[in-house]
Amino acid sequence: MPLPSPLDTFKRIAVAPMAGGPSSPALVIAAARAGHFAQLAGGYKTAAALETQIAEVTEAGVQVFGVNLFVPNPHPIDEAGYAAYWERIRQHASTHDETATMAPRLEDDDEWAEKLDAVIRSRTPVVSFTFGLPSPDVFRRLKTAGVLTVQTVTSVDEARRAAAAGADALTVQGYDAGGHSGVWDADTFPENVPLTTLVERVRTVTDLPLIASGGITRRDQVREVLDAGADLAAVGTAVLLSDESGASATHKAALADDRYTETILTRAFTGRPARALVNAFVESHADAPVGYPALHHLTRAMRANATAAGDSTLVNLWAGQGWRDAEEGPVVAILDALEP
Ligand SMILES: Cc1cc2nc3c(=O)[nH]c(=O)nc-3n(C[C@H](O)[C@H](O)[C@H](O)COP(=O)(O)O)c2cc1C
């Protein structure tokens, strides 16, 4: 399946977008210079901060790169449920801040409109979406501006709807993926099927270029997803320990710590399913309610304090199923070793 320009200029291994620090401009610049498609993560930061990062990548001479955005798709939690969850996590939240209080409930949109304006103004070549599907108007607006759009999907149904809405390409995110699942209905967890099966199924409903992602840390897995019908394979966890990764020292140390023995899909940190290493916080709050983005904001200070203190038991240690294969070193060495 030929890829449309500009994705067809890349090697087969891409870098998945990772918000919260890992997807630094340095990571994107290094990967792109070596011929790998890479993306900045627009999530959580302000539109102004995102624009600064885009400028850094552009000024480094990188012509084709992506920016990933969180699509507003709120799953609100009511005040009673919010306060009840606070009572449950209060002790953990007070561990590194005795004066911790419940943050006001915040159902924001992560500066969606401002970020759309920013990517168009800065002539970002590729924009990808997760957590939900933008309206056909958004796809049309970006197409008119010359932007290639990529939509994350986690099921055949989402793939069909993304194609119908006007996406130019799809990221097919599998069950084993680290970090947040892009599943549109945050009340549900993505279906537990192998990534190759999901890619094969999506391939039967669309001819769009497919970027397969989730649990890929070895070259044989790359070959399998390409054979299943993907055009590119994207890795996240595999580059979390790389020199250019902006993951925190606490997150990096935990990924290399033998005491962590499994990952799980959990809503404990943000009220939306995400795959993380199982630490004390995940174990204690396995039955966390749905509530994104409110719960993300509720646990934010706790996570920041624990990260600063080097206490990985209370941090969202996003990791895919293949985390044990993650290695240190220059990102380009890690990516090129995975090229089929
Ligand atoms: C630390 C971390 C942060 C992530 N942040 C985002 C994000 O901002 N946007 C997004 O679409 N996916 C995000 N993801 C998911 C990745 O884009 C990708 O789907 C996943 O890393 C693939 O699985 P793997 O980690 O097993 O390679 C994140 C994953 C990780 C590990």
Q: Describe it for me?
A:
It is a single chain. The protein has helices at residues 25-33, 47-59, 79-93, 112-121, 136-144, 156-165, 195-203, 219-227, 249-255, 280-284, 294-309, 331-338; strands spanning 13-15, 39-41, 66-70, 126-130, 148-153, 169-173, 179-180, 210-213, 232-235, 263-266, 274-277. Strands 1-9-8-6-5-4-3-2 form an 8-stranded parallel β-sheet. Strands 7-11-10 form a 3-stranded antiparallel β-sheet, with no helix packed on it. The protein has 2 domains: 7-73 and 109-247 and 323-338, Aldolase class I (TIM Barrel); 75-108 and 261-316, no CATH class. α1 (25-33) runs parallel beside α2, α2 (47-59) packs parallel to α4 (112-121) and α3 (79-93) packs parallel to α11. The longest helix has 16 residues, at 294-309. It has 340 residues and is of the alpha/beta class. The protein has 12 helices and 11 strands. The structure holds flavin mononucleotide. Flavin mononucleotide binds next to β7. Flavin mononucleotide (FMN) binds next to β7.
